[in-house]
Structure formats: C-alpha cells, structure tokens
Amino acid sequence: MSHFTTIKVQIKNGEVLHQTLQELGYQVECDTWVRGYHGDTTQAEYVIRQSNGYDLGFRCNGENYELVADFWGARINQQEFINSINQKYGHKMLMHSVQEQGFNVEEEETLDDGTVRVVVGRWV
After folding, report:
1. d(CA 105, CA 98)
2. 69 has which bridge partners?
3. Where are the chain's structural domains?
4. What predicted TM-score, i.e. pTM, was given to this entire model?
5. CB 91 within 8 A of CB 31
6. Which of 72, 93, 104, 124 is the most exposed place for a label (fewest CB within 10 A)?
C-alpha cells in the first residue's frame, strides 16, 4: 500500500524549478526514485533526498509539475515548503520574463511581510 501523496503546484518550467531548489539550498538529484514508507518508491524528475529516508520529489504531469512525497514520514511543513518554492520560482520566472521582453530591473526590495517588490522599466 502506497503512502505517497501528490500536490499540484503552479510550476511549468523544470529547469527553473531545478535552479530554484538548488538556490534554496537543497541537494537535487535528477530522474530518480522518491523513497517512502517501507521502501516504496515512485519516479520523479527532481528529487530532494532526506536523511530519514522519506524524499521529496517533483514530477511532470502534463504541463505542470506536482510535488510527490510520503508526507507522514517526510515530516516537513508542506505549506511552508511549497510557499518558499513558489515565491523563489515566481521571482526567477519574473526575472526571466523581464529580461526576455527587454526590460531592466530599476528597483527591487523585500518588504517586512516577505513580499518582493520589483520595479522594471524600458527605454522606448
């Protein structure tokens, strides 16, 4: 009996996801197995190994990625984990789009509540 749970996340770009996980300090393995309860495994494109044997994985499901893990054993705060990834991923995607569309970052600051404020501009 599998104990794996999947959570859909609003992440589409695997390369940026990989960079995001690394920038957040996680050691990431690519295209490998996520470990769970009693040696159960499931495949994922990006896997964060945990010393307790309960890994966290991201796998592509159509156009989006999903988080897959045995959360009972992983013992993480799911919401905090997902929020930190979403914020960093969103920032990286914004910066990618800004550059791609010819804008320059004029100002960037992190507010007291953790929100990142970015002001961009472009000469026309």
Report:
1. 8
2. 5, 56
3. 5-121
4. 0.86
5. no
6. 124
